Amino acid sequence: HIAAFEGHASCLRALHELGAAASLSATDEYARTPAHLAAEEGHADCLRVLHEYASLSLTSADAIGSTPVHLAAEAGHAGCIRALFELG
């Protein structure tokens, strides 16, 4: 979650390579995935890495019903919105 929130795509790749891929799709206490945090903070590159390596849906809703695209739109991150639609 921290790597996605901070925009460290290379750390997300390293987690996958080191066998910690499950952490790339884990949810926090608010049912947010790393994709939610990356979208909210404007890290489209992280969204691409998560799509490639994590077994998670980029359209999953958190505890209050927000999806990554909702959070990206709310924060004004057009690049993340584009990436999410391109990735499906």
TrEMBL record:
Keywords: ANK repeat, Repeat
Name of one Pfam family that matches: Ank_2
Matches recorded under SMART domains: ANK
Intervals holding ANK repeats: 64-88
PROSITE patterns, A to Z: ANK_REP_REGION, ANK_REPEAT
Signal peptide start and end residues: none
Listed InterPro entries: Ank_Repeat/CDKN_Inhibitor (IPR050776), Ankyrin_rpt (IPR002110), Ankyrin_rpt-contain_sf (IPR036770)
The name this protein goes by in its record: Uncharacterized protein
Species for this entry: Emiliania huxleyi (Coccolithophore)
Organism lineage: Eukaryota, Haptista, Haptophyta, Prymnesiophyceae, Isochrysidales
